[in-house]
Amino acid sequence: MKLNGNQKLATLRAALRWFLALIYCAAGILHILRPQWFMQITPAWVPYPLQVILLTGVCEVLGGLALLGQRFRKAAGFALALYAVCVYPANIKHAIDSLSAANVTLGWCYHAPRLAFQPVLVWWALFAGENINWPFNRRVE
């Protein structure tokens, strides 16, 4: 059986959705089980950092699970894209702190791709959540 363009796009979107849901659920669980590690990279201006880290962990798990269902998929895709934008300052802080430390544990080989990948993560969440079709511009039926 040969897949048409819409079927291929739907298959790609489903695979990316499942993978992204797995990533967000795993990250959320880590936020909940190991909040101390995330405390180190949380900017000082974040109020109640432990509570924010735990809450974001719960949100990541719920967002990942919501992506997999039909009812809240679009909302989850939008929320996870917005979340990726909101945590970008923490990623920048982590890179600056890590690269300016006396003992650099994670160098540019880690931080540069991570910082550059953030816009892709925003797109990925929007695409997986069926909010956008770009760059495919085909309608999934």
Characterise the protein shown here.
By secondary structure, the protein is mainly alpha-helical. It has one domain. It has six helices and no strands. Helix 4 packs antiparallel against helix 6. The two termini are 18 Å apart. The model has no long low-confidence stretch (mean pLDDT 89).
Helix content: over 70%
Count every beta strand, where a strand is a DSSP E run of 2 or more residues.
0
- Count of individual helical segments: 6
Question: Mind summarizing the main beta sheet?
Answer: none
> Helix/strand/pairing class, anyone?
mainly alpha
Mean pLDDT: 89
Q: Strand portion, in percent? A: under 5%
| Rg estimate, integer Å | 17 Å
Low-confidence segments, given as residue ranges, are: none
Shape descriptor reads globular
Termini separation comes to 18 Å
Count of discrete structural domains: 1
**SSE arrangement, N to C:** HHHHHH
Defining key terms:
72% helix, single chain, mainly alpha, globular, 0% strand, 141 residues
